[in-house]
Design brief:
The structure holds two protein chains of two kinds. Chain A is mainly beta. Chain A has four helices and 22 strands. The chains are: A mainly beta, B alpha/beta.
């Protein structure tokens, strides 16, 4: 029964989630939200042996961007993360590592009781590669199948009150990414404050919600890839949402983001007015301003056991002009920059059989191609993003029959970055498909199997072979699990045994430097034990 | 399972197609068709360009580039896309072949000097990312071929970049120090670049020598200073390990010593090394459809290597469908016999004609010494250079395809030594009407006047006439001369016969005159007369000195036309012709029947 309630809640949320894309509504746990479209290391010359070469380092939080740098996968729990991390790195990794929510609960409609609430989303994984090493994510695309994902958790504390006919919610979400102290012995785990906002429902008018603070904004995901295809922003700002009865919802939000990178922010030392020590001057200060809007229509109503929805979504990103100082001490002007996103989603759900399907399309241009916490460029003097573009297509679906269930996901992405090169490894077409059937063995246990395919192709030619840089991998896995709350693909927690085998072709292996054993191993194994939970979280029931 | 994988592949493939994927963008460069693009190398005009200095077409690869454009020992930003973008410029100049600086990965920087020139190779299988990637390079070469421009790649077989140090004191780190206590005992020892030792560099401890010093490769990936590739070059026996040349007069040092700057001498005597060098460089030809190699430091490699390398490259390329692949080398030496020795049977097709550079372009055109030295050098050519085409080579004897040049990246520019545009123009006229293959150094057409390296490696876009200017007098002069060479086959393929040179260099009637004929078996004829000095007009006659006018091969009574001015000259009944030429002037005569107009 509990499972059914959870399922019902999840399905209801599916309808609402997209709407509440100010997702605000659903402080869904972060995920690969922060996609750094270009490797950060490109801007850190001293750390980069080959500026144009993809960095393939599990420990390095990945530019989720384009392979050839295999999206550094969700570092699994057993992974040794020892490299120096910049704040951006951490941000990237955090957003890479989280799990997507199953659907999003309708916490806006069913206001919870006043008081303090503790909630959480999390997953912890320990795995072996069956060769004496740690199990590692073996994906080669930006959003790979998540069977071999790593550890990530959110701890959420919120205060809820009903005041003067309004419902108030202060949400604080602390996120941590593995490896954990009990694995690496390092007491300084990597934390981030993700959500930290106040939202007031029914403010000024019924159905109107206002919010401000730090917030993850997002809509529906493709669970099998930990991927939000349409809307997934992480900024500090504010917004409003208006629910028009049972048929529609409109959301608008404005946020700022400013990675500590000389593309947006630079502090330099200058001679102080007096004394000997130099003083610091902020010479470049241009946060990205993101305006996002979303309209969702429920032709059959949003509170129905079955329904349809259509989403129209847009973003506008802008940066002011600025000036910075190069390493050589030269002044360099950065022009103003902008970009936009236009996307849509259609979907439907049936509470019976826990069925839903969502289709997404999203096109981004210019600055908006790059995540607000990412940095657009590799190297060189390309300082504006006009040329950049990205197209995403995605599908997610779920269906359950009594003891059986199945999840399906797929996506395609075409990306071109801002620099004028036509032939390059960052100019990529990539995609993945995955199917995960479930069989329940009684009420509390089950087995899931997963098969997936992922592939990419770039406009670069491999210098050693002369062939196009492309690759693919097939991943198969088996996940026996125990579910204390009973059946339901989206019930949690799940205690799991996870086995995954990733079979990489020559192109996928070639993504790794010769020194990396993965450049020689066709098959990579991952055998682990893990748990995933969500409860009383703004994101998960 | 198999079926499922196939289905999944189909789904993704369909998605990639729908998305307007990448395949279309790679269409033109995905595959390489190996073809022979050259009919006769004597028809070609080579333009030597330093890629980093020619044009910057892709700022995204401007990694660690000197932002001022003033520090010419640092990377400046030029790349292969830049070459592609400026083929119109080259075509307007009349260039039919380009020699590009080395393409493979180099040690990026060392002692505040960058590897922009390409002679510090560290990975023979990878491209230097400063210049672009494989697809961009292929597209550049394809674009050249589409315009009839051939592409010659600069390669190095003699040495690698500074990939290792000699661990003389066996302490596992590179040391550089001075030891000793007095004027006679102070000795500078550097493990990066120790002085030549014929036994091989020896390890040394406080108790004395300790056998061959181990070599240790650097591991500095941030500047590409890593163990070399392919892996064979990570073996000690791939190097001679004798230290830096201290005497260029010692033939052993010349062949087995490290090149100054710590460039480690490759053991080209090692059969495995020879084979690997053949393999990697042939591989680049097959990946890129190149038309020739310019080979660096020819004289620092033993003859036996060339007798293996050159025939083996020709054989493999012929099997792949590539013929008349030109291999010419750099033997930086004024010794004509030595330079010529590399063109003897089974060696390279041609060499840079350094003796000609020194004795003709320097002595005659810069310093206005006697033109009779041209005659002397020419007389030695048949003795020193191969007179038969190399088997499966370019089809022309080396003596007829020597690569002539006025200056290059290792020499001060002509205008640095002789700041006279008129003198330069006279030299250019000689270069472009001579037999052999003329080779222009980039920037000559912009009147660059840089001195020694790196001052002679200016950024072409920083021309004082404006970037890629095609209107200055030197650009137009070269374009005119290349056009004439193209229009009159005698000037490219004709046999070369000197008709007038002189010992006189003062105020005499023929001082500074050099005249030569070019004739082909098909009957093409041209007579070129150049006044190499700039003080007074001279003529092809010694009548004032009790001599006769110049005898010519043209028929008595025939009329010859100067293709530069249209002026007519009639050969006397005695078969002689006195041609008056202004200071640093040139007259190019062809039979009236062949004259194509101004």
């Amino acid at each position: 029964m509990v499972g059914l309630a959870v399922l019902r809640s999840a399905l209801a949320s599916l309808a609402v989630a997209a709407v509440a894309s100010t997702a605000a509504a659903q402080p869904t746990p972060p995920d690969d939200g922060v996609v750094l479209e270009e490797p950060i290391d490109g801007l850190e010359p001293t750390d980069d042996a080959a500026p144009d070469a993809p960095v393939i380092d599990e420990a390095e939080p990945a530019p989720a961007a384009p392979p050839p740098a295999p999206p550094v996968a969700p570092a699994d729990a057993t992974e040794d993360v020892t490299t120096e991390d910049t704040s951006q790195d951490v941000a990237a990794e955090v957003t890479e590592l989280e799990a997507p929510p199953p659907g999003e609960p309708d916490e806006d409609v069913d206001h919870e009781a006043p008081g303090f609430v503790f909630g959480s989303y999390g997953r912890v994984v320990a795995a072996s590669d069956l060769d004496g090493g740690t199990g590692r994510n073996a994906d080669i695309v930006t959003w790979g199948p998540r069977l071999d994902e790593g550890t990530y958790a959110e701890l959420e504390l919120r205060r809820q009150d009903d005041v003067n006919g309004m419902h108030l919610r202060i949400v604080a979400t602390l996120a941590v990414v593995g490896p954990l102290f009990h694995f690496d012995g390092e007491f300084e785990d990597r934390f981030a404050i993700r959500n930290l906002f106040l939202e007031v429902d029914d403010a000024l008018a019924e159905g109107l919600a206002l919010w401000a603070g730090s917030r993850m904004w997002r809509g529906d995901d493709v669970y099998l890839f930990d991927f939000w295809p349409l809307d997934n922003l992480n900024t500090v700002g504010g917004g409003a949402r208006y629910r028009l009865g049972d048929a529609a919802e409109f959301a608008l939000a404005v946020g700022l983001a400013q990675p500590n990178d000389p593309f947006q922010r630079q502090v330099v030392d200058v001679i102080a007015p007096s004394g000997f020590e130099p003083t610091e001057v902020l010479v470049l200060d241009r946060p990205r301003i993101v305006v996002a809007s979303k309209a969702t229509w429920f032709p059959l109503g949003r509170e129905r056991p079955s329904g349809l929805k259509a989403v129209l979504y847009g973003e506008h990103h802008s940066l002011a002009a600025g000036e910075r100082t190069s390493e050589e001490g030269m002044r360099e002007t950065l022009p103003s920059d902008s970009g936009w996103v236009l996307g849509g989603q259609v979907g439907g759900w049936m509470i019976d059989n826990a069925a839903f399907v969502n289709l997404f399309v999203r096109y981004a241009r210019g600055l908006a191609v790059y995540d607000p916490l990412g940095v657009p460029f590799r190297v060189g003097s390309t300082i504006e993003t006009e040329r950049a573009e990205e197209l995403r297509l995605a599908l997610s679906a779920n269906f359950e029959w009594d003891m059986l269930g199945v999840q399906l996901g797929g996506w395609f992405r075409r990306f071109r970055d801002a620099d004028p090169s036509i032939f390059e490894r960052a100019a990529i077409a990539e995609g993945a498909v995955a199917v995960r059937p479930y069989v329940w063995l009684g009420e509390h246990a089950g087995i899931a199997a997963e098969a997936s395919y992922q592939g990419f192709e770039t406009t670069a030619l491999d210098e050693r072979t002369g062939n196009p840089v492309q690759g693919s991998a097939v991943k198969v896995g088996l996940v026996p699990f125990f579910s204390p709350y009973g059946r339901g693909i989206y019930t949690r927690p799940h205690l799991r045994l996870i086995y995954a085998a990733t079979i990489r072709d020559a192109g996928a292996r070639a993504l790794h430097p010769d020194e990396d054993p993965r450049s020689r191993e066709q098959t990579e194994h991952f055998l682990g034990v893990g748990v995933e939970w969500w409860f009383d979280s703004s994101s998960y029931e | 399972m198999v079926v499922r994988q196939q289905q999944l592949r189909v789904i993704v493939a369909a998605a990639l197609f729908v998305g307007g994927c990448v395949s279309g963008e790679l269409d033109d460069v995905r595959d390489v068709k190996i073809e022979t693009h050259v009919e006769d190398w004597r028809d070609e005009v080579i333009y030597q360009l330093v890629v980093d200095r020619f044009a910057n077409g892709d700022p995204s690869n401007d990694w660690r580039v000197d932002p001022t454009g003033e520090h010419l020992a640092r990377y400046q930003g030029g790349d292969w896309q830049g070459v592609t973008d400026h083929l119109d410029y080259l075509e307007a100049l009349g260039v039919t072949a380009i020699w590009i600086s080395p393409i493979v990965l180099n040690v990026d920087t060392d002692a505040n000097v960058d590897g922009y020139h390409g002679y510090w190779q560290i990975d023979l299988t990878r491209l230097n990312p400063h210049f672009g990637d494989l697809a961009t390079l292929r597209r550049m070469i394809d674009a050249c071929h589409d315009r009839g421009i051939k592409v010659i790649l600069d390669i190095v077989t003699n040495h690698m970049g500074q990939a290792f140090y000699y661990d003389i004191n066996i302490n596992g780190r590179p040391d550089e120090n001075i030891s000793g206590s007095g004027p006679d005992t102070i000795e500078r020892i550097t493990e990066y670049d120790p002085d030549y030792d014929p036994r091989g560099i020896q390890a040394s401890t406080s108790l004395g020598e300790a056998g061959p010093a181990p070599i240790r490769f650097f591991d500095m990936p941030e500047i590409f200073r890593v163990p070399p590739e392919p892996p064979l070059f990570q073996r000690p026996d791939a190097y001679n390990r004798r230290g830096r040349v201290t005497s260029w007069e010692d033939p052993d040092q010349v062949v087995y010593g490290d090149f100054p700057g710590g460039l480690k001498d490759v053991a080209t005597e090692n059969p495995a090394v020879r084979e690997e060098l053949v393999r990697v460089f042939v591989d680049w030809v097959l990946k890129l459809d190149l038309d020739g190699f310019r080979i660096d430091t020819l004289k620092h490699v033993e003859y036996e290597f060339w007798e293996h390398f050159a025939p083996e490259v020709r054989r493999r390329l012929r099997e792949a469908g590539k013929e008349r692949f030109l291999m010419f080398g750099e033997a930086f030496d004024g010794n004509d016999e030595l330079v010529g020795s590399y063109t003897l049977p089974n060696r390279v097709d041609s060499v840079f004609y350094f003796p000609h550079k020194f004795q003709v372009f320097n002595d005659v055109f810069m310093y206005e010494q006697s033109t009779s030295r041209i005659q002397r050098l020419f007389d030695e050519r048949a003795l020193h250079y191969g007179d038969q085409p190399q088997e499966s080579g370019v089809g022309v004897a080396p003596a007829q395809v020597l690569v002539n040049f006025i200056d290059n990246h290792d020499l001060p520019r002509f205008l640095f030594e002789k700041p006279s545009v008129a003198a330069l123009h006279a030299a250019l006229a000689y270069l472009l009407t001579q037999d052999g293959i003329p080779c222009l150094y980039y920037g000559t057409e912009q009147q660059f006047d840089g001195g020694n390296d790196p001052a002679n490696r200016e950024n072409l876009w920083a021309s004082p006439h404006g970037a890629y200017d095609t209107t200055n007098e030197t650009f137009r002069w070269i374009a005119r001369l290349t056009g004439i060479r193209r229009d009159y086959r005698a000037l490219s393929r004709g046999d070369f016969v000197l008709r007038w040179t002189t010992d006189r260099t003062d105020e005499e009637q023929d001082a500074g005159i050099v005249a030569f004929e070019r004739t082909t078996p098909e009957g093409d004829y041209a007579l070129v007369v150049i006044n190499s000095q700039g003080r007074h007009a001279s003529e092809t006659s010694a009548s004032e000195l009790g001599g006769e006018p110049m005898e010519v091969g043209a028929a008595a009574g025939s009329t010859l036309v100067d293709v530069l001015t249209g002026e007519r000259h009639t050969v006397s009944a005695a078969g002689t012709l006195a041609v008056r030429v202004e200071p640093h002037g040139v007259v190019i005569l062809v039979p009236e029947s062949d004259f194509r107009g101004g």
